[in-house]
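pasting for ref
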Amino acid sequence: MQWKRWLGRMAVVAGAGVALAALGSRSAAQTTEPPVGTWRLASAQANGKPLDLPAGTTIVKHVTPTDFVFVYYDQQGQVSVVGGGSWRLDGSRYEETVEYGLGEGMKPYIGKTQVFTLRIDGGRWYHAGTESDGTVIEEVWEPPCASRPAARGC
């Protein structure tokens, strides 16, 4: 009888090991980590052309487990555009619903959900899709200290 109990325990341990190994071997395509954290826009294209921003403009995005906010600011710290709302992730499908905003170009986005493909690779967030106004965007976000290690707080 002892050997049956021992064999049963071994089967449970082996089954747990197989399950853990399967979880650990998932590819990046199967598991998309949420983009929770602070990000700085490293590069962006709109309709295949580099995003045209005034010189010295920085764009940061703060993402919590439920909400996001993005801010455009200049070298003097003056904010020109801000917006935010809720977000959702389903696999690699990332949705942002803009609930509030201020600044040039924000009004058409308020109340609309933007759908993108999200991929985080090597600490960078790759974000692409077609916005509600038809603009095709490709963005690359990185942690704020990645390219500015001497910046405040890095």
